[in-house]
What we know:
By secondary structure, the protein is of the alpha/beta class. The chain has helices at 64-67, 94-107, 120-131, 168-175, 188-196, 199-215, 218-222, 266-269, 271-285; strands at 10-12, 15-17, 20-29, 32-39, 46-50, 72-76, 113-118, 136-142, 229-234, 255-259. Helix 2 packs across helix 3.
Amino acid sequence: MTDSEDGPHVHGEAETTGSETTGSTTLSLEDGDIHVCQDGPRDAPALLLIHGSASSTRTWDPMVPLLTGSHRVIRIDLLGHGRSAKPTDRSYAIPDQARRVGLALGRLGVEHAVVVGHSSGGVVAVALAEQRPDLVTALALINTGPSLDAFIAPPSPAAGLSQWPPTDEQIRGFASTAFSRVGYQIPPELLDEVRRMTLHTLVSTMQAARDHLERRALPDRLAPLGKPLLVLFGEDDRRWRSSSAADYRAVPGARVELLPGLGHTPIREDPPRTAAPLLAFTTVHAVRAD
């Protein structure tokens, strides 16, 4: 599928009621369909939420109602995830994922956005800011490791998944470190999102994030950009050393906040406590649509 000069290829079920926009849309980009969800007032400042590896827009479901009072909340399934395409012949490198996000926002008419990334979604968020400083007004990173040095006992990308599609037990084992408590009941919809992937997209997207961090640490990428930065980190993260959040203090003006008692996915473990500092940050730096 290719873009045409006649306008964007858009299909889906987004609905507009009064000033509210809700629902999902599929955008046909040159290298694959990208699924997008929108919620909140269409003329409110845009807030983009980017999920992490082996996840999707659904990871943010508990956070969305807390954010739509003051923002047009946009969520994107990165290529290879959720309801987006999962081609075997396209690049899953972080710069390419960021480029697609920028194209998708352009299709939606978004000129400025505060961008929030969870885990490896934060790596994509930083890459987007590098590519499109005109688009990204501020960045918030949630449990995004600053460098590979912060990774705790890094497994191979598909560790524990010996068959495809994997069983629920295998997925639970694979995803268990994404939460602070051993025995945390992972919501069924999150299990479904792993199963929706292919082994190729799972391995490729996870390896892409590692490769990108290996090339250059995120604080080094962020420092010259001059973008307002909020870093939130669950203090009991079992994937990344929470003490590594201090590395982001090398970025001028960065605000770093640890969340005691929460793990790698505070957006699911305690949405209100995660939303409070995020909203305080976004309302200062958001830009209202014309």
